[in-house]
Specification:
By secondary structure, the chain is an alpha+beta fold. Helices cover about 25% and strands about 35% of the residues.
């Protein structure tokens, strides 16, 4: 494949809400430009979604890139670099780095569903990167499609001209050739100077068993050549480039990549941690003076403990997390121990879907059986001695007397919902201590902005939102700031022993309800022992809820035939004494299922 002049290169990404057809459109584009033959694509939907989980859930998790060659109607040969990005809010950092490497975006909107919350979030990110945007209406062949109404909606809500939006059906291929022409005529070519010093943006990196770390780059100026020595400006490390190439989606090696091109390099790098996403790569001998603006580092928002069900799996879990960390820079973990669950890790995630995906990948790819503790967020505590600390594990909370103030993170949530579910959506936000900021209408759909405390959202907000709106509401959020809150640490005591895996920070007004739900759930889950077991929820020394698991009773009078009643009474008294003693020394076995189920308790 020859390198085209820079004016014939187009770098673009596809942005859209989940399920509006990004990956399917990518498939059609690859097919129509001959990136893969019919046979290679046969029986395989979403070519770019390579992970099993992506295929099963029908979502994109990792951004992927492909280079396609296209001969336009004007007879010239063009090179397209296509980035397929995730649509889900938890993977917004994947979107941000793909957009930074492109000049334009195709905005895919479902012609029957219209603009959704994450369509907005992703478009705003594209506009922040000064992208030229081409609106594409997908699924126009569906009977429910209303293209004219949706065009108007794009103009009203996003504020971009949609009068010449391309009408397509990515599934059948209808209208896809028009998309290819629109890419040529409506998206700008990249800018760059071939004779300048090498300057390239590190877009992504992942670990390959045979090649070491594969680094995805966008060359801005200069030429990336095989055999040259390059330096990562962020870490200061220098490497010799072994391979240079691009994906068609298959790996193709070339001798060099020029300005404006997107491709990969390998340089015997051992750790993905050495290749910081957003770093600038330059020539080791004559480096450029200033770095390219990188991406915001991914900051974990939700934390939870992951413990192996079988203690012998701990080392396997450690190795598995190390491997996942190689491919997912936004996932962080540190070791922790728990009296109830043994050794495990405290992990940081970008959101609940991210947590779920990581858990599923650990159990699938590494065959691990895991328990996750209740998700929590980072709290900032101001102590009476003037110090400030951050805490994301309730167990580490200092003594109440030492705390002057606890601040919790708040988010701004944007929720789009059909009108008939608006009442129940507002009630849900109100119940979660939210305060409404604005309410506007987009056609027949309401768009609400709410300020909500993050700790109410991480628990099960997304599931509840989907159930009160029958799946029609869409939700997107970003962190705003920290605000003081009246939070208390609630502990669950089983037989007067605190179970640290179940302790949590809750708002004082919600503590009693949450505590009652927890103890009722635990009562059902802990099997009866030979003695009575009290289960209590407590804040400090004050018990706020209690349930009791009744004792199993062995029939000690079975061998007593006839005779005086005092004989039976004596045996029963003896049994009673024994149970009392047992309760002092007896150990309560809490089955692992009880932990898992209790942590899923629905408020």
């Amino acid at each position: 494949m020859t390198t085209a002049p820079i004016s014939n290169i187009r770098n673009f990404s596809i942005v859209a809400h989940i399920d509006h057809g990004k990956s399917t459109l990518a498939d059609r584009l690859i097919q129509m430009t001959g990136g893969l033959s019919e046979r290679e694509m046969a029986g395989k939907e979403q070519v770019l979604d390579s992970m099993d989980i992506e295929r099963e859930r029908g979502i994109t998790i990792k951004a992927q890139t492909v280079r396609l060659s296209y001969r336009a109607k004007d007879g010239k040969d063009y090179i397209f670099n296509l980035m397929d990005t995730p649509g889900h809010v938890d993977f917004a950092y994947e979107v941000s780095r793909s957009l930074a490497a492109c000049e334009g975006s195709l905005l895919v909107v479902d012609a029957s569903q219209g603009v959704e919350a994450q369509t907005l979030a992703n478009v705003y990110q594209a506009l922040d990167n000064n992208h030229e945007i081409v609106p594409v209406l997908n699924k126009v062949d569906l009977p429910a499609a209303e293209p004219d109404k949706i065009k108007q909606q794009i103009e009203d809500v996003i504020g971009i001209d949609a009068s010449d939006a391309v009408m397509i059906s990515a599934k059948t291929g209808l209208g896809v050739p028009d998309v290819l022409e629109a890419i040529v005529t409506r998206l700008p070519p990249p800018k760059g100077d071939r004779d300048a010093t090498l300057k390239a943006l590190l877009v992504d990196s992942w670990y390959d068993v045979y090649l070491g770390v594969v680094v995805l780059i966008r060359v801005v100026d200069g030429v990336m050549k095989k055999g040259s020595r390059v330096r990562m400006m962020g870490t200061g490390a220098a490497y010799d480039v072994e391979r240079v190439g691009f994906f068609t989606p298959k790996m193709q090696q070339v001798d060099e990549l020029g300005p404006g091109e997107i491709g990969f390099i390998t340089a015997a790098i051992k750790e993905v941690a050495d290749t910081r996403v957003g770093d600038t790569i330059t020539d080791d001998k004559k480096p450029v003076s200033e770095m390219l603006p990188g991406f915001k580092p991914a900051i974990p928002v939700v934390f939870c403990g992951l413990f192996p069900v079988d203690a012998d799996d701990f080392e396997t879990l450690r190795a598995a997390m190390g491997k996942l960390r190689l491919n997912d820079a936004s996932f962080s973990f540190e070791m922790e121990t728990s009296a109830a669950l043994g050794f495990g890790f405290r992990c940081g995630f970008l959101g609940l879907l991210h947590l779920e995906i990581i858990q599923e990948r650990l159990s699938r790819e590494f065959d691990l059986n895991l328990i996750a503790t209740a998700p929590s967020v980072i709290y900032k505590m101001k102590l009476t001695d003037g110090a400030e600390i951050e805490i994301h594990n309730p167990v580490d909370m200092p003594d109440v007397v030492k705390i002057a103030e606890i601040d919790e993170p708040w988010i701004e949530a944007t929720i789009l919902t059909p009108d008939e579910y608006l009442g129940s959506v507002l009630k849900l936000c109100q119940d979660r201590r939210g305060s409404q900021k604005e309410l506007t209408y987009v056609g027949s759909r309401a768009m609400v902005k709410y300020d909500l405390p993050l700790n109410e959202v991480v628990f099960d907000f997304y599931d509840r939102l989907k159930s009160v709106s029958k799946g029609y509401a869409s939700f997107d959020y970003h962190l705003t700031d920290y605000k003081p809150a009246d939070l208390v640490k609630m502990q669950i005591l089983v037989n007067a022993e605190p179970v640290d895996a179940l302790s949590m920070l809750v708002h004082r007004t919600r503590a009693e309800g949450r505590g009652r739900a927890m103890v009722e759930k635990m009562k059902e889950l802990i099997p009866p022992h030979m003695f009575q077991i009290p289960i209590q929820a407590a804040i400090g020394g004050k018990v706020i809820a209690r349930e009791t698991v009744r004792a199993l009773r062995k029939d000690v009078t079975a061998k007593c035939y006839g005779g005086d009643i005092t004989r039976k009474r004596k045996l029963l008294e003896k049994q009673k004494e024994g149970k009392k003693k047992m309760r002092q020394f007896g150990k309560v076995d809490i089955p692992q299922e009880a932990f898992i189920a209790a942590l899923k308790v629905d408020s």
